[in-house]
Design a protein that fits this description.
single chain; mainly alpha; transmembrane; about 140 residues; transmembrane helix
Length: about 140
Amino acid sequence: MNHLKLILFSICIAASYYALTISAIGIAAAGKILWWFSPKEHFHLYHILQNFIGIGIAALIPAYLVYSYEPKRSWLSIAIVILGSILFHGNINYIPFDPNGFLRFFNSTIVYGDIGSYGVALAIVFLPILWLLVFKRITRQL
């Protein structure tokens, strides 16, 4: 029963992480992150930075929830959150729990994507792990 609770908890957080990352990507596409600094050259790097900041803030919330409510099995929970979010991102125009969403996510970002989609995919995967490491490091020193 505890594993079922962990899976349901992680899937709920994955759905919220998906919604937060989609909104962060949309806000970055509208240019509303760091709007006062808009360079004319190297616009793609600026856009990748906007996505990185937005997804970084979005990844803070699931990492904190996993760290707070599942401290013993936090790595398993954050892995389920990341995989669930990837599944939801891959199934934007399809049934939400279609297993082909993993393939669609990696095909659209890694195989057929540009440098911006590489950055978004890596940020979605690695930033929750980074925040969880930060939380564990902070509490280890206190």
